[in-house]
Amino acid sequence: KQECKYGTSCREQSDPRHCDHFHHPTRTSLFVPSATASSHLSNMNSDTTRSSRIHTNHGDNGMQKAYSIGGAIALERLSQQDQTTIKNMREDAVIVVPGTYDHIDQVLTKLNLKFTTVQQYELMNYPLKTYQTVYINCASNFPREAAYRLREFVEKGLHIITTDWALRNVLQVAFSDFVKHNGQSTRDEVVGIEVVDPNHAFVNGFVLAATHAEPQWWLETGSHPIEIVDKKRVKVLIRSQALYDKYQSDAVIVTFDCGQGNVTHMISHFYLQRSDTPNARHKMSAQQYAQDIKASDNITKLISKDGQNLNYAQIQSSATSAQFIYNLVSNRLNSTNQSTSSTHSRKNFQ
Description:
Blueprint (H helix, E strand, L loop, with lengths): L1 E2 L12 H4 L2 E2 L11 H8 L3 H6 L8 H17 L3 H8 L6 E4 L6 H7 L5 E2 L15 E4 L7 H11 L4 E5 L2 H9 L4 E3 L7 E4 L1 E2 L10 H4 L6 E4 L6 E3 L6 E5 L1 H7 L3 E8 L2 E6 L19 H7 L4 H10 L5 H32 L7
Helix pairs in contact: 4-12, 4-13, 5-13, 7-8, 11-12, 11-13
């Protein structure tokens, strides 16, 4: 094979046809075991964090359990109709495009949500349909042509959900009239968040979770803060004052309509949302969180069985993250079901 002249910055590394002919340098994920090393990495300049992402261990086993419990909490808060709609959803209603760093597929699996996996390079010819939602994981590269094709389909009714570096690789490419990367990069940290529009369907349930303690949001090393280009059309759903104070952007989750479709983007990842314990309540047990939100007996028993070693902050973070995903999925399914009943068919994009 020939050496690819673009090296690690090549945008076609996800295309096996390209990789059959060209060799790329191996990307290395680093595990940082000590607080000293972690502190050193946090002080790396933004140019370094833009081109490489340092992975640290965030207590994966604990958050896996937290996601299972948080998912159960979130599911209970959906209406019976929404639960039935999700149970009966089509296999291809949700499309997941794998990335480099985020793994929404693992979260969806934990939440028992059906999905179909489509690779980045397959998006160029994949027969997208109007009722689908495409989840695009944070990735170090993304085919520009695929980003432009997504824009075309969003304008016809497709919904896409993007995370972190997809801001630069997808949205800044094809939706630059709405949002872009503000040029800065975050450290590995956790910030407090607040709901901007508590009546928006996507964040239903977040206010209850924040009644006794401010929910936390994990920022991966090198996460991309969001700059809103069109302030009239882009709506901030979740914000963080701490994020603004450090990186001059308070947007954590944004959403905007584009033609007949919609785009929702969040800074950082769905997967491995770790938590911190900034105050005394966050250090309390998972059982305390269940009491605060008046969880059912089933949830209380589940926490007693599987969540004895989890704290308040872990369950709160996983429950709000799971609630957001369930809200996105159920609202989308309900809207497409309604539109289907009026048109009696679901049509492919032409």
